[in-house]
Amino acid sequence: MADNQKEIDEHSGVDTTGHEWDGIKELNNPLPKWWVYTFYITCIWAVLYWIAMPAIPLASSYTKGVLGYSQRQVVADEIAAANAKKAVWADRLMSTPLEKVSDDPQLMTYVMSAAGTSFGDNCATCHGTGAQGSKGYPNLNDDDWLWGGTLEEIQTTIQYGIRSEHEETRYSEMPFFVKDGLLERDQVRALAEYVLALSGEDHDAALAASAAETYEFECASCHMEDGAGDIFVGAPNLKDKIWLHGEGRDAIIKNIGYMKAGVMPAWKDRLDEATIRSLAIYVHSLGGGQ
User: Fold this and answer.
1) What is the mean pLDDT of each run of 10 residues along the chain (290 residues)?
2) Prediction pTM value
3) Domains parsed from the chain with CATH numbers
């Protein structure tokens, strides 16, 4: 066959290229022109992009591009603009007394929106997304406040935390009555009945009565004689039916004998003052603020 003579494949009717492998001949099916032109255009576009935009990594940097575009700078500018808008509301919040914020509907809308986000980012891990708490983590929706539930008291708690490392943290610690040998196990069991009686739960009246003197000497200084607790030392109210570390006889015995105490971080050095104020108002508005 002459070099310039085309060979037509008898099955497809398409020219062959002349290449053959093990009796299989290659058909001459060129790419469509539109595809070829599109490929050329993308190659040209890539070259132009490399020239105009940051594209090629170098040993310690990257090519900046003739346009000098930076997505990182765009994000930084957007954040700066958002912070500028936020600063206006933050200044307004800082200049308004806490108890007066609810009188300003626009400011209150900003506070609830901003604090809702901050709560989700910083508080929900322990207190839950709905602030409902869990065993060992206080429910912020009820009206049980170890350290007080006014706006100012909530703000102080958020600022300095509970048993945190901040020098102004709120701190309280119940003795390990069994672990430290301060009380016998029988005395602790009797005290548990006394506590159950205070909260109106089913109890052994005789055992509860036998623990009255023990309660007076060991517990009343913090929990008060009537069991109502004391917010100045963070002592829980034993008369209500709210139990932070578990309810029931067994849980009470364990808490008396082997004290449990959680830790809340101080947010003063982690969040700005306006955010802390917003969180105090937000928590107070959940339904349990005093």
Assistant:
1) 67 81 84 95 95 89 89 91 89 94 94 94 94 92 90 96 94 89 93 94 94 95 94 92 90 90 93 96 83
2) 0.73
3) 6-17+27-69 (no CATH), 73-169+264-284 (1.10.760.10), 185-257 (1.10.760.10)
